Predict the 3D structure of the following.
Amino acid sequence: MNKYEKQLPENIDKKKCPQCGFENNLSTIYCQNCDYRLVPVYYPPQKSLSVPWSIIPLFFLLFLSGGLIVFWRKNAISLKQASIENFIVTSNPQESTFREAKTNSDVYPKFYNSMEEVRNVPQGVFFYGGSIASAGLRSQKIVSEMAKAQPQFHLSYIDPLNVPPDSEVGIEMVIDVQLSFAQSFRPLKQSEYDLASSRGFKLKQVPVAISGIAFYTNPSIKLPGISLAQVEKIYTGELTNWQQLGGPNLPIVPVSQTPDSKASTSFLLQGILNESKRFSSRVKVVRDTTAAIRMVASTPGAIGYGAQPLVVGQRTIRLLGLARGNAKNYVQPMTAFGAVNKQTLLDGSYPLIRRIFVVFREDGHLDELAGKAYVDLLLSTEGQRLIEEVGYLPIRVIENISF
């Protein structure tokens, strides 16, 4: 007898043995007379695997809920970001303009024909600042043409408080989110890139124009020119009298614009000379190019410098030719007709050439869009022609530029 036989229910009917005919086999499996099996082996009933139709909806709801939970957890970050973006659009609708521009497939910068054609120009008032040398780019002619082409794009030049404006201060104000963008008469320094990176964004610089630095003196100085080596010695205090350069017996009075006086001569001369040679205490410091011109014009023996478009044509001062090193092959900053000598900038023969940059933050905000729009406006064919008209060399090669 196996384990299942012991579990045989007790209500088994009386069985007659077909083998021997014994009829009194009660509740047994084998014939009590001949031991013949009377019934088949009993196996316990198996549980059904079928599911009642009534609980199928419950299974469906559980499956659906589980799927939603998995989807939510997988996309929690993107959903959160979407909520933030929706909030930005609600609180500042112009941010949506930035995102639309970011998805635009146009290559940046794109060279448009006219300022009016420039796309993705934001609406609002945007502050900018920067170098005195690029003041010509803020001329009434350029500003008015921009306003005519893009009337929704309002620009306001901001002077810094308590310090004179210049490239370094403008870049600092961009990093400190005080300006949308800045004009710079020099490229960015690695320290400025690093500072921006520590704040969580990048800086972008785009050249838009070219200019030279011209030196000028009081009209009492009749020298044909000066070399870069002589400039260094004047501003470091090694040369103190014009007689040392073949001129009249007059003390040399060097004039500079803050903060150039705090820097080395290499800053003034594009890193050509020793950075350890600092400006001397004899240098007279003024706020800007206008103040420098006035001081030089009224001070016998004075010498100053500035961007060519700002000093060429000034009748109260006398421009000097400029030569590299200790040479005497002076290149004049002005043509015989009283205009900036752009040909010497184009062919690179002028010894001291600078590019003018627009610097802005790449931080995904509206100021980035404003900086890019300003660059696109200046780099348009119309913008480059206006830059040429105010005395700078366009950085793009376009037709019919007069030299």
Remarks:
- The first helix runs from residue 3 to 6.
- The first strand starts at residue 124 and ends at 130.
